[in-house]
Amino acid sequence: MSSLSPPSPLSPLSSPSPLSPPPSASPAPSGAPALPLSARPLRLALCLSPLLPAGIWALTNRSVVHEGGARLVAADPWWLLAGLGFTCLGWVAASCVRQGALPERLPPGLLLASQFAAGAANHALPAGIGAHAVTLRFLRGRGVPLDRATASLALYSLVKPIAKTLVLLVFIAVSPAGRRLGELVPDGRTLLITAMALTAAGLVLVVVRPLRRPVTGLLRTALADARLLHTRPCRVLALWGGAAATPLLQACTVASVGAALALPVPWVEVVVAYLAAGTAVGAVPAPGGLAVDAALVFTLAAFGSPVALATATVIGFRVLTDWLPLLPGALVLSALIRAKVL
Questions:
Q1: In this structure, is the dihedral angle defined by the CA atoms of residues 322, 324, 326 and 330, taken in order, positive or negative?
Q2: How many whole angstroms separate alpha carbon 135 and alpha carbon 117?
Q3: CB 60 within 8 A of CB 301
Q4: What is the mean pLDDT of residues 252-272?
Q5: How far apart are CA 304 and CA 284, in angstroms?
Q6: CA-to-CA distance for 152 and 160, rounded, in angstroms?
Q7: Among positive and negative, which fits the CA dihedral 45, 47, 49, 51?
Q8: Of 148, 156, 154, 132, which is closest to residue 225 (Cα–Cα)?
Q9: Most CB atoms within 10 A, among 90, 92, 228, 311?
């Protein structure tokens, strides 16, 4: 009978239930969550990799680390508080350099928060890559084009070592401590290796055509932005003033920790030691600034400080600048990501 015949495909009785999946949708692959779970151990290993060389050195120099830690516990808290103040001013100076490297005006509060969060991301990757990645995401979120954002990072990376070297030369000229830096001057072999590396990089850019076009475009944008920025006095002051103030504030943090520990090195010589150590090995791609820390301990010891006291000073400096702000910086980074600022 026609009344018992099955409903036609166009009948309302044959429409799928709103709770049932569409017929064309395929089920989600069961192995999809396995990739993030399997990547977590690798991500954790990368984050902890900067601690490996420091742990090896600490195990081989247990007595020095123990004596330095004991001295740090008994340090003057007011000088440590002053060092923390210099650290906070360092984030302000870094924000000024970031703003000075870009023609567009950035929101000051969010810029300062992004630089504070960039410190937490800078521990897992060498040579400031973590901070640059956070800043790049922040600039892209502010609507800055990719080429201009990348050019601002390049200008930032170029101005900072130039300003640090100029500040170091000024201190060497006005302070007798510069005469005691002869052991940190690179020898001929180091200069030859550096020249060969720069030559090889230039040859790669000339030979490999896929790299030539983006690098040429980046340099063209960077030069155009640099010319535009240097026509604005406020940008010049923010760029070069912040770049010169950043290493001075970091050196003042080291000197404050040294004063808290009664380091037998004058304040000016501590500043010269930090600037010299950062200039000599600042280009070494070591996560967490380990190469700078080793050079700083060596330089302070060359200036007359006991090795244990120099080690305690460097440890205290890293506590104030890196380890103490690490958890708050990670929380700020997470908050900025949730707010879609990054």
A1: negative
A2: 9
A3: no
A4: 92
A5: 26
A6: 12
A7: negative
A8: 148
A9: 311
Q: What is the rounded distance in angstroms from the CA atom of residue 308 to the CA atom of residue 85?
A: 25
Please tell me the predicted confidence (pLDDT) of residue 14.
Answer: 46
Cα dist from 74 to 68, 91, 318, whole Å: 10, 27, 17
Q: Are 158 and 218 in contact (CB under 8 A)?
A: no
Q: Give the burial string for 57-94 (b: 16+ CB within 10 Å, else e).
A: bbeeeeebbebbbebbeebeeebbebbbebbebbbbbb
Q: How confident is the model at residue 281 (pLDDT cuts 50, 70, 90)?
A: low
Amino acid at 150: T
The two structure tokens encoding residue 338: 């949730």
Distance CA 249, CA 210 (A): 41
Instruction: Assess contact for 99 and 111: CB atoms under 8 A.
Output: yes
CA dihedral 296, 302, 305, 308 (to 10 degrees): 60
Q: How confident is the model at residue 209 (pLDDT cuts 50, 70, 90)?
A: low
| Identity of the amino acid at 110 | L
What is the average pLDDT value for the chain, to the nearest integer? 76
Between helix 267-281 and helix 146-174 the angle, nearest 10°, is 140
Q: Checking phi first, is residue 288 left (phi over 0); if not, alpha (psi -120 to 50) or beta?
A: left
Give the C-alpha separation, 206 to 94, whole Å. 34
**CA-based nearest residue to 24, from 32, 12, 35, 16:** 16
304: helix, strand or coil? coil
d(CA 51, CA 30): 36
Sequence-separated (6 or more) residues with CB below 8 Å from residue 264: 304, 305, 306, 309
The three-state (H, E, C) secondary structure of 128-146, written as one string: CHHHHHHHHHHHHHCCCCH
Measured CA to CA, the distance from residue 199 to residue 291 in angstroms comes to 24
Mean pLDDT calculated for residue range 106-114? 93
The half-sphere exposure of 102 on its side-chain side, counting CA atoms within 13 A, is 26
Rounded to an integer, the average pLDDT of 59-65 is 64
